[in-house]
Amino acid sequence: MKIKSKNSLFVCSLVGSLFFATASAAAESDNGKTDQLEQRIKVLEQQLKTLDTELKKTILESSAAESSAAESSAAESSAAESSAPEVVLGESFSDNLRTKMSTHGFASAAIAVSDTEGTYAGGTINEDPNTQNDSVVGIQTDFLLSPKAEFVVQIIGRGNDKFDADISWAFLHYKLQPRLSLRAGRLRVPFFINSEYLEVGYTYPWVRPPQEVYSTSFNDYEGFDVNYEIIRDPWRLLLQGYYGRGYLSRSTSVGALDKSKGVSLRLTNGPWLARMSYYSANISTDFSGGAAAINQALASLNQEQFVLDHDPTSFTTFGFAYDDGKWWVMAEASIAQLTGIFDATHAHYLSVGYQFGPWLPYYTYAKRYTADDEGFNQTAAALTQSGIPEYQPYAASVAGAVSQQESGTLGVRYNLSPNIALKVAYQHFYDFNESKGQFSKDPGDNVDMLTFVVDVVF
User: Which residues have CB under 8 Å from 57's CB, separation 6+?
Assistant: First the structure.
């Protein structure tokens, strides 16, 4: 606020006169002029009071003028806003959308080769250099609908599928309470420690998770889950229960898994983690091709056939991990169980690594085997003993369903930047026990495999 300069000068002059007058009074008191000076002081004091009153009046008038100008400006601004509401609305919606939506991406570019003709673990790796098997690109978007609700969608393109877009996640997440939440839609089955980020290679040291354990017929389902967290520092326990329906092949709806249900427990304490998961379902599938021919042969011999029609199946996993920023240890075990002549499959692995700077070298031992091969062996024996020449290849196929293999992997991860990791791994497979293991053709006594991967997140 501005005050006229002449008023300020006058005040200063008046105060100065008063000061000097007082000093003069003290000096002239000895000469008998005190009464005259006191009279002059009174006059000056009266003039000062008058000026003070005028100054206050000027301040009030100036304040009122500024307030009026501010109100006028606010009115003009309000009128301008009301005259163009569509512009403000558009800007507000755009800002709001950016605030409530977050998008993240990930990708892996890989090349792998082995020294055998048969492909590995249902993939495409063989003796020809392969860039599709472990290559993947994905994007995930989270839409915040409210402080308690969000919608999550994840779209993935896999090299083995010519990078065709696949919606692997699409679910609504709602927080019922701070530690209790519900999700519904297409979800990942919580089989393993790394299930939630199974295809985000940047999140783990391996070039690919150990396929002896992680190679399953399916990884997602459509349904809902309930998650509840119990915290007792330093312990945290996450309980997860789920129910829904899955498919062995979602694109063709082959192999329905009805009444898919399970429970998962995840316990953490600092660098330690332990988990357990149990899954069960009723499986149905139509056998075609060679399997259908084998079933016809078994029917002619009055033998039990390879039939799955709402038959119970289960999958149980256990795991633990330790990661203190230097030492990294992870181990998991699984048991897959079917009914009838299908035998249970057991698998496990142990990985140990040590990180120094950007380097993390590691070693992994893994094994997968058919726990009880009596069912397959009896069926193969019946086909062989039939003496029918056409059935002999079927006997070999059934006997080949018995699976066993072990492997050792020596690998290293190098963190090129906070969002880029380079990996290389040499894997040696052995102890097939006259089976094909996880290879599509007889691998012989052993197989060597080499893989290079670049993982990124963005």
Answer: none
